[in-house]
Amino acid sequence: MFELGLVLRFVDIATTALADAREEIDALNVYPVPDGDTGTNMFLTVSAARDALHEATGGSRSAPMAPAMAAFARGALLGARGNSGVILSQMLGGIAGRIAAAGPDDRSATVFAEGLSEATDASYAAVGTPVEGTILTVARAAANAALEVAEVPDHRLADVVTAAAAAARVALEHTPEQLQILRDAGVVDAGGRGLCVILDAAETALTGRRPVPPSTTIGARRHIPVPMPTNDLTEDGPSYEVMYLLDAEDDHIPDLRKALAPLGDSLVVVGGEGLWNVHVHVDDVGAALEAGIEAGRPYRVRVTHFAEQVDEARRRTRSRAGRRIVVVAAGDGLADIFREAGAFVVRGGPGTRPSTGMLVEAIEGCGAAEVVVLPNDPDSVRVAEIAARTVEEAGHARVAVIPSVAQVQGLAAIAVHEPGRSFDQDVLHMTATARHARHGAVTIAARRAITMGGPCEPGDVLGVIEGDFAVVGEDLYTVATDVIDRLVGGGGELVTLVAGADGSDLAQRCEAYVEQAHPIVDVVVYDGGQERYPLLLAVE
Fold first, then answer.
1. How far apart are CA 23 and CA 18, in angstroms?
2. Strands 454-456 and 449-451
C-alpha cells in the first residue's frame, strides 16, 4: 500500500529536479527559434500539484490518502500550462487516481505500474492525433517496463520504478529516429526529457540514487481513457448523480451496463482488470446501487442531488450578465489593443503561457454569463479548453473557446465580435474570421536547423507562414515582403501588421511596401510589443 510520506517526498524532489532542468528542456524546444517553454510548463504544472498536495495535507504523512490525491490531481490540472503541461497533468492525475483507489491489500508496485499504464492510455486518448517520438512514446515505454517487472513474484516498488525510469531514458534517446523534426534539429523530445526527469525523481525518492541523465543531443549519444461525465442539470432529467468504484469480474460488466441503462442517462462505466468506475444519472439511487452489488463490490459511493446544483447554478447565473471576451495577449501593445476592444486580458506568450487555473480565474472573474476565449497560441488551446470545461461544469458561465493559434487571428476575431448577436452566432462569426485570417511572422533563428525554406544558421532571418518556417534570408525587410507577397497571393482585402518590441521601423516599411505593391489592399499597423518576433502579420 502506498504511503503518503513517499508521495510528499517524491513531489518535492520532482519539483526541484524540474527547476534545475527546465532551462535545458526549454532549449530542446529551440527549433529554430527560442519560443519553446516545455521545461517551464512542466515545472509549473508539478509545482502547482505539489503546492495543492501540501495545502491539503499540511505536510502530514498521516493525512487521508484519497482527498490528498484528489487535491494533487486537481492542482496539476489547474496548474497545467501548454500542451506538455496538460499531458503531464493527465498522467499525474491518472496515477494519483489509481493510488487513491488502491485497497489495503494492493501491492504498491502493482498500483504504480497499473496507474502509469492507465495514465498513458488516457494521455494517448486525450491527444487528437497521437504522434510517436514524443512524451507519449516515452510514457508508453516506461509503463510497459513497469508492468513487466510488476508481474515478477515478490517485486518491489523500487524495482518497478527503476525499470520504468530506465526504459524512459532509452525511449527518449530513440525519439529522433521517430520524428524528422528532432533529427533535423539534433535533439531529443523536450516533453519526453521532462518525463524522464520526473521518473528519475521517483527513483531517487525510493532508492536515494540519482540516475545519470541521458544525452539530449544526437551528436552526444553513444550508445484507459476516462470520459468526463456530462452534468445534465435540467428539471426534466434524473434527480441524482450516482458514482462509485466497483470491484467486479470483467465479464460481469455487460450485465451491469444493461441493468443501469434503463434507470437513467449519462451512463459511464470505465476500468478493467477487476476495478471499475461507475457513473450514472438516475431517480432510483437504490436500484443503481443494487445493480452494482449484483455485479461485485461497490464502494466510495457518492450521491449528488441535482436540485441543489440547479439552485446553485441559477444563483450564480443571476449574479452574472452579458458576454465578455477573454484574450491571451503576448505583448504590452497587443494587451492594450485587446483591452480597447473590451476584452479581459491574460498575459501570455513563450515562457509565460497562462495555466488552466489562470484562465479559469479570468473566465470567472470577468463576471459574464457568456464568455468567449481566444488563446491566440497553439500551445494554449488545450489549456483554454480544459479551463472552459471546468467553468461550465461548475455552472458558472457558458464558455466557448475559439482555437486561434496566432495573435493576429485573435485580432481578426475580436474585430467582428458583436454582443447583439446570439452567443452561438457570435462564436460562429468569430471562429470563421479567425480561421480565414492567414497568418505569418518574421523572426531570427537561434540555432542551425533544417526548415521548409531550407537550412538556416543562427542569426538568419526566418519567415513564418501558417506556423511553418517557409523563408530563410539575411534581411528582415526582404523576408518580410516575401511573406507578405505569399500571403496576399492567396487573395485578401486587408493586411494587418503588428510591430514587435525590437523598436525597428520594419512594420512601417512594410506598410509602405503594401501600399505600393498591392494598392487595392488595405493595410493597418499596430504596435504589439511582442518579444522574439519583430513582425506579425495577417491577411484577411
1. 9
2. antiparallel
